[in-house]
Amino acid sequence: QLRAGRSTTVGLAVLDAGNPFFTDVARGAEDAAAERGLAVLLGNSDERKQREDAYLALFEEQRVSGVLLSPTSETLASAERLRERGIPVVLVDRTAPGSDFSAVAVDDVRGGDIAARHLLDQGRSRIAFVGGRPDVLRQVDDRLAGARGAVDDARGATLEHVETDQLTVLAGRDAGAAIVARKPADRPDAIFAANDLLAVGIMQALVMMGSLRIPDDIALIGYDDIAFAQSTVVPLTSIRQPAQLIGSRALDLLAALIEDPNRVPETIEFEPELIVRASTGE
Ligand code: RIB
């Protein structure tokens, strides 16, 4: 049952409503909400803090019973403020160890490790991790950390971080163009993109602008395994996240918190899965 004065809606603030990963998260949350007679208000922070804050304020105005949040920054100040005002919050798509927030995500360190080891197993040794900036999105930091660990274990392999402002197709296309512009000897022989949207943009740049062959010249792996990953011009190898399950389990945790605000915080971490396709060679 709901708390006095609370509506039968919950808020869901995602980082990028244009990313099919979050569409699938929202679908999972909505299906679980419908089973409980709850509706979901979707907000797109567009990876911008001020938009995230605006949506959280709107959710509060609408007297939502709880909020699912994929945070735009490492700090969780906005989530703390909501909770201080009596609105339960569950983090989606990243964990917050040490905080007392419940959270649902995949183990992104493991995901980064699996991705890098797959490239190393293909005999690649000059890996570029493309996407994000340090200390912004925890899930991206964790993927990079996992990849660094795998590369450190492999003798003679190197890893560089090609940073981008966003995790979009356009940002991927720009990063890919910069790699194409390098002297051949300075190019990586494998790219690990922080998500599939970046990988799509990178693939376009390598193939259209650089006439480079994937994977022969540069192997490419993404992250999320969105539906488009299998239909890119060179089908994309990716690390699958169970997006709909993440959404529905996050809603389940939120419903439990609405029921009992003093419930012990719980973190659910799913295992990432390597989906091999032509872009890394097999
Ligand atoms: O938008 C940020 C990225 O982190 C998404 O593509 C998805 O991978 C999420 O985990």
UniProtKB/TrEMBL annotation:
Record's keyword annotation contains Transport: no
Key words of the record: DNA-binding, Transcription, Transcription regulation
GO molecular-function terms, A-Z: DNA-binding transcription factor activity; transcription cis-regulatory region binding
Keyword Nucleus found: no
Protein known as: LacI family transcriptional regulator
Portion of the full sequence shown: 54 to 335 of 335
